[in-house]
Structure formats: C-alpha cells, structure tokens
Amino acid sequence: MSSEDKAHEFLQKIDDWVEDRNVDVVKKNKNVEYIINLPSGEINNMKSSVAASYSFVLFAHAEYLQTLYNKEKSVVDFCENSIWYIIADRVNNYGGQYSKWQEKYYSAIKESPLAKNLNHLKLHSEARLSRLENKAIIVKRMAETLSNLAKRRNNEHY
Q: pTM score, two decimals?
C-alpha cells in the first residue's frame, strides 16, 4: 500500500467516525460567494431579517472552512508522525553530533521512498493549510458584522 493510500485510508476512517457521530454536518453552500461579495450599497439597505439570515449562512461557512482546515491538519500530523516512525532509527546516521536536526531529518527522508512520498503529501497539505489559515476567522467577523447590523436594524424599528 502506498503512502497516499495509507493517508487516504486514515482520513476515511476519521471521516467515517465523524459522519457516524454527526459531528461534521455543515456542507459547502453555493450562496456564500454571493453574500461575501455583496456591494456596500446593498448591505446598507439590507433588512434585519435578511442580514440575520446571511449572518447564519456565513457562520455555517466559517464552520465548513474550519472543518477543511482540521482535516488538512490531520493529514499533516499523520504524515509527520509516520515519517518520524519510518526514519527514527536512521536519523542519527546522517551528519555529525552537532548537525542540525533538520539536516538529519531531510537526509533520512531522502533515503526512504515511503518517507519521501509522505513528505510530499505533507508539503501539499501544508500548502492547503496556508491557504485556509484565518479564513474561518475572517468569515466569522463578516457574520458578526451582519448579525450586529440585523440587531441594530431590529432595534431601530422599536
């Protein structure tokens, strides 16, 4: 079984566990792009009920983004732990006593095809993590802004 197959099997087991317990119920929503890209004039004239509705959609999207982030983080952790398991007994064969651990680590990875594949997979997941970082926080702030707008508009009518 290849390293990618092992990683996919690992993820599938996690996905099955999460799905079995209904932990991961938020799915991708097509309306998010429209809401996020609303022009300011439309936001200024928005009714309270619409702002509250859009806020809810954005909070759900933030949860969806966090789920994606957590999934990629589990891939990185799986790869990192697997790499260390593979190279642990060989890592000290590279470099001298005063060599940096990174030099030993990457030298040991180069010698193992499985560790090399896992490292490749890890790098891809880390790149996806970089793209996702702070996205959920930003979307939550947008949702809070719309929620506050809904509350303010609702209070203006009383």
A: 0.79
CA–CA gap between residue 59 and residue 24 (Å, rounded) = 14
Distance of alpha carbon 35 from alpha carbon 61, whole angstroms: 11
Where are the domains positioned within the chain? 3-156
Contacts of 36 (CB under 8 A, 6+ apart): 58, 139, 142
Amino acid making up residue 82: S
Find out whether 103 and 94 touch, Cβ atoms under 8 Å: yes
Crossing angle between the packed helical segments 48-87 and 3-20, to the nearest 10 degrees: 140
pLDDT digits (tens, 9 = 90+) for 36-52: 999 999 999 999 999 99
